[in-house]
Specification:
mainly beta; 2 helices
Amino acid sequence: MKFTSALSALALAAGLAACGPQTAAPEPGASVTETEAAEMPSVTQEPVPIEKADEASAWELTDFTPATNEIYCSFRAVNADSEPGPLLFMTEIAGVPAPAAVGLEGEPVALKEVSKTDTEGTSTWLYANEARGLMVQLEVTEVGDGFEYKSYEGTIQVTQPESGTAVPFTGTCGV
């Protein structure tokens, strides 16, 4: 039995040596090809402050592509036909309170929950991004529910550093 174990160990070592790394680790400062960059995992970074905070258009909410597919709440703009339109706001499944994001100029901006208050059927949700001095307010009304979700409608708008346009939305929270 010892002979078989020794042969197995030698065969394993030879196999591992033959399967060495196909590509060497890149040197610091080395350029990366477009293909290599596409294969690298992306890292979510804290957003950089907007340079022109005094321009109101910089604070208008826009459609964006979320950095995750682990979405719990997703609220979309209501278009002229009252159908769900572009994504305006989302929260992730993980975390208490769950991280959120909105789109500014088409880019996702990370938000943290500040508060949620209820008053006679309507909730006010406040989210902030301290790095940008940004505050987003949602006026939310529950309009239905299902087995593991709730449907909402309401408005969302940037309230700080300047007040943006309130945008009507519809959406759900749940799995």
